[in-house]
Amino acid sequence: MSGENTVNGLIIAAPSSGSGKTVVTLGILAHLKAHGVRVASMKSGPDYIDPAFHARATGLACFNVDSWAMRASTLMAAAATAGEDADLVVCEGVMGLFDGASATEGSTADIARRTGWPVILVVDSRAQGASAAALVKGFDTFRDSVNIAGVIFNRVGSARHQRVIREAMAYAVPHIPVLGMIPMEPGLELPSRHLGLIQAAEHHGLEALMAHAGHVIGRHVDMDALQALATGWSASGQVKPLQPLGQKIAVARDEAFAFAYPMVLQGWRNQGAEISFFSPLDDETPAADADAVFLPGGYPELHAYRLSSAERFLAGLRDAAGRGAIVYGECGGYMVLGRGMQDADGTTHAMAGLLPLGTSFERRKLSLGYRRLVQIADTPLGAVHSRFRGHEFHYATVTNEGPGAHLFEAQDADGAKLGRMGLVNQNVFGSFIHLIDREPKD
Question: Is pTM, for the whole model, over 0.90?
Fold first, then answer.
């Protein structure tokens, strides 16, 4: 994709997390696809779980978009790629509409400003009546560059509750249509764990849930009016956020290693790399001809015994490193490259031993936030002083890290210094950071 493409889109956002926007988004995607609309999706922010749900609903890869962590050209190219064969792109927001890396940067509202796409606000109305309209009015007037084009009220109660909300909306914000009122219905909840939702691959009733959500949306939301609100954005370019690790990259993919950003993988393909997949949990090895191996993040701590017993996988990883292939790990993948991982019960499980690293989930500590990164060692990702942006989210603590060369000098989104992160051992390297893009310059 290199030519300009008019991408029709809209954004599903909410005043806060927990409003139900993910299930509403899945219901919208499922309904549109079932009715013959070529629908694609995107996800605002660094989340790596919701996009997998989107992909199951649409059958297409879901790209993340992030106004803080991405260059403007990367964000535009992501939208252009998503909309290439789609009638409509639905972008799900992150947290509350105006929440991001800081009070003024990195929010879903910034995506709306850049794309010009209208915002559909999903409001949880369980504990409010007319006050829900006051909330919508506040969001409508908070930032002039954001167009709140419609509202879906979620978890609505009685017929009287609906009437009170509609009357208050007609009084407070008559120019914003109420697109729907979704009642509190059983079977519309997604289970969660410590890093967010249970993964799509683990949710065995997901198809039934999405079909149910699609039927609920069809009954209670004016889908014709919603689609009519979409606007076009002239987007172009190919996604190329990171340099490829090699020409033939073997990527670990299963329930323990599911947090690879689809846009990063597509970016490597766009630069001529071939991508193959293998499952460490099934004791598979990287492809024999791979000149690079990527272990993404995920939930290795939930499968520590199984991974430590996967002798073919661990031997194949060591063999790849021994023959000179690049081996790179992020977050959970970084931990697996270490010497050992301690589970929540305090049992230590031997890992690949390719980096001088020990980690523990017995002593849990949350590390969360955007990261500015300067590379302090040459790697295929770039030379010394290459700059990146990424995201860190884990509960592991480091029991030992080193001795050895570090990979990054890190700062948080506000510029506070966090010190050195990650390790490099010749052709093996990694860190707890999920890299998103090179440092924005435009």
Answer: yes
